[in-house]
Design a protein that fits this description.
41% of the residues lie in helices and 23% in strands. By secondary structure, it is of the alpha+beta class. The strands form 2 sheets. The chain has a 4-stranded mixed beta sheet, with helices on both faces. A two-stranded antiparallel sheet has the order 2-3. Helix 3 links the parallel strand 4 and strand 5.
Length: 155
Amino acid sequence: MKKSISYLPLNNQKDLNYIVESITKRIKQTEMIILFGSYARNDYVVYDEKYEFGKIQFYVSDYDILVVTSGISDGIVGKTLDNIEVEYYNKAIDPDRQPPVQFLTTDIKKLNKELNEGRYFYSQIKQEGVILYDSGKQKLARRRKLNFDEIRQQA
C-alpha cells in the first residue's frame, strides 16, 4: 500500500489533509484512513462535461475514503463523517468543481476478517489504496489471494 499523495496536485493534497485532520480530531478511535478508488490509482477525472439528456452533465471523480476504527459504533462514526462532509463542502470555493467525498467506515476487526477471507473489495483497497493516516496501534491482515472462480463468485 502506498503512503504518499505527493503525486496529486497541491489542492487535492490540501483537501485530503483537511479531511484527515477533521476525522482524527473528532473520532479518537480512528485506526487508519485509506484513500482508494480513482484518486489512489491516479486515474481520476478533474472535470468533464457532456451533453446528455438534453442538457449539459458534468462529472468529477470523488475521494473514496475508508475510515477504519476500533471500539466505536458505525452509527456514531457515520454521523460524525456526515458533519465533516458538510464542513468540507462549505469551505469549497467552486462547489461544481470540488471533488465530492465518499466515506466508507468499518471496524478494524471486521476489515481484517474480510481480508483473511479474501473479500475482493477490501483486497483491492489494500492493494491499490494509499494510507492517509495510521495510528500505529493496529495492523492490517494479509489479504488472501483468490482464484478467478472465487473472484467471480464475489462479484
